What we know:
Elements: H1 2-29, E1 30-32, E2 40-43, E3 49-50, E4 53-57, E5 60-65, E6 70-73, E7 81-100, E8 103-109, E9 120-125, E10 141-142, E11 149-154, E12 165-166, H2 169-177, E13 187-192, E14 195-200, E15 205-212, E16 215-220, E17 225-232, E18 235-240, E19 248-250, E20 261-280, E21 303-306, H3 317-325, E22 332-335, E23 342-343, E24 354-363, E25 367-376, E26 378-383, E27 386-392, E28 412-418, E29 421-430, E30 440-445, E31 451-453
Antiparallel strand pairs: 1-20, 2-3, 2-6, 4-5, 5-20, 6-20, 7-8, 7-17, 7-20, 8-9, 9-10, 11-16, 12-13, 13-14, 14-15, 15-16, 17-18, 18-19, 21-22, 21-24, 23-30, 24-29, 24-31, 25-28, 25-30, 26-27, 26-29
Amino acid sequence: MKNSIRNLLILAIAIVLVSCLQENKKNIIAQEFAFTKNNWQIENMDGSTDTLKVVDHQGKYAMFLEPSQKAYLKDKDFKNFQLEFHCNGQVPGLGFRVQDKENYEYLYLRMMMSGKKDALQYIPIYNGSLPWQLYNYPKYEGNAEYPRKEVAILSPSLENQLVQGKVSDKLLKALEEKGIIFSEESFLDFPDETISYIYDPQSNKALLFEKREDGIVFLDISTWVHVKVEVIEDKMSVYVENMDTPTFVVDNLKRDSKKGGISLYSTFGQVYFSDVSIREIESSNVPKQRDTEKVISPNYLTKWQISEPFAKDSVNFMAQVDSLFDYREKFKTVTADMDGILNISRFYDDMDKTVTLTCNIVSDSDKDVKLNFDYADHLVILLNSEVLFDGGMNFRPLPEKGMEGRVFVDDEQTVLNLSKGSNELTFVLSGDNRQKYNWGCVAKLEDLNGISIE
């Protein structure tokens, strides 16, 4: 009997030891990257290097990034990984599978948009562009709940001071009495019925506010947020605060699934990062992807012939287009992605320029068919050399321009008066030459009855 008990104890100890060894093996894979110049390189927007700044901030040892700065993790590449960090700031961002400074995958958090469908966004970066209008909800933007810190409650009698535009002296003084200083340049804004905020362009400081029974409550978004990002092949899962359930999942990352670097960003405003750790996921532990081909509806116009970029003459651009057509041998074939989005930044990097896109629509008879489309930033549509549409956004969309200026295929429509036989459809598409973020389009035919696309 004693021998049996002793054997059971030995077996139990052995199981515990094996379990500990396995856990230690996992811990070896997880790496923490201290904020030292051996691990991180800081770069400014112009590409110049800067000093690594490490501070104590709200109880955490943190790396501090000025607006538009980036922190690159040195000499480490990851393909499949799990990355955790805490961040504190307006719009913190994460670059991963970084091939170079102009080409990588990108995730960023909009702290002001807590609880909204666009609280965070994924974007593939090609040639340095930031095409937030092209890749949007529900696939590439998602909801997340971010913590807020209550910093002041003002009297309900000040409600009449909450007027869009420049902040009144009375409101500024009331905030100052609570220890909150905003400059005279500050203004109030109300983007929609659920968001109200005060912003100081001088200090780049912002506070949300909301009306409650006990008064006007001011809330600081600059609090620590716990984030985990898991990337496996072409799938990304993002966890915010709750590390057990993802709040946002992207099933088709756009860029090639291959190893690349890691970078941390202060997209807008100052950002602090803390507790950065990365666990590499070995290829042997990656679950098999289902071998199913991702297919887009045949109604989408996905195959185009594209010209070399040119500087558009707004008055004589038709003559420019005619001249380009004399050199069709210089056009090349490009294909839209699985969402039908044609992101011109995949092919060219100068958003001050314009390209011409063409495809042929073959009809079995004279007929009208509706074309649904959208674009960024300026588009002219021609069918058989006749102008059907000419519109632009100049970065800030017109009030009537679709859903918050984002590119959705059903935002715009025009009718194509097709002739029997081959019809040439031409898009003359200009980039966002102000912010240099968005340059692309999406289009589909409503009906393919008796129609083929070449």
